[in-house]
Amino acid sequence: MSLLDDLDRGLLDLIFPRDCAVTQEPMDEGERLHLSDAGLALLPRIFDPRCFTCGHPFDGWLEGDRTCPHCLDLNPAFHRALCAFRAQGPVRHIIHRFKYEKSPYLADDLVAAAIQDTAFRRHLAGSHLIPVPLYRTRLQDRGYNQAERITRTLAQKIPGCSWSPALLKKHPTASQTRLGREERRRNVAEAFSVNPNYPIRPDIRYVVIDDVLTTGSTLHACAKTLRQAGASMVDAAALAHG
Question: Distance between CA atoms of 107 and 146, rounded to whole angstroms?
Fold first, then answer.
């Protein structure tokens, strides 16, 4: 963690008291530094029932064999993905801030809020976490990889977890934001490789980590790369779905 990552902390707190990233009201005391209890209550969580493949929430009970429209035709290389929040409202705002507005520290509080979800925490427990990598030029421009920040924090907070930067981005790709489902898949196909410093083992359960799962294309491409390198157990997770 660099000093620039945490300029809002320490002595600066005395000069510029922190406000909640959601309510914009002064922070109360507690473990979280940028998300108050009132702000936490406003985050749109995902509850069961949800898709057993991509984790998308279903509004209402499932009856029979219902196909999830969000992973339709994906046939993902990961076994199951799980998300804690819907990528809506304050969650989308916080993710936008830590991803594009040089505020990576906000990811720490969103992670702390995410692991209050028992299903999400259980999904990650005891696994080896791997962040979705950025291409080197984008990493230089942004100054950090938000998925790596999320991964490191999850590994610190969830018992039995470890992590490594076991994937590399081989070439730059267009932003997925404005691409359709098929375009997203083509955009990231064959975009990743295994970091030779971190050999993949078939006896370890890997979970690929990202900030948001939309169509699942990026997580699928990462999981496929791990399987091709010898991984037999690969899942995925993101803080938000949408």
Answer: 8
C-alpha to C-alpha distance for 229 and 197, rounded to whole angstroms: 13
Q: Is residue 193 in some structural domain? A: yes
State how many domains the chain has: 1
CA distance 69 to 71: 6
Q: In terms of DSSP H, where are the helices of 103-192?
A: 106-114, 118-124, 136-142, 146-157, 181-188
Measured from the Cβ of residue 42, the count of other Cβ atoms closer than 10 Å reads 14
Q: Is residue 194 part of a domain?
A: yes
Q: List pLDDT tens digits, range 28-65.
A: 777 888 999 999 999 999 998 888 899 988 875 555 55
In a domain, 7, yes or no: no
Q: What is the dihedral of CA 68, 178, 115, 60, to 10 degrees?
A: -30
Q: Quote the pTM value.
A: 0.88
Q: Is residue 234 part of a domain?
A: yes
* Cis before 49? omega within 30: yes
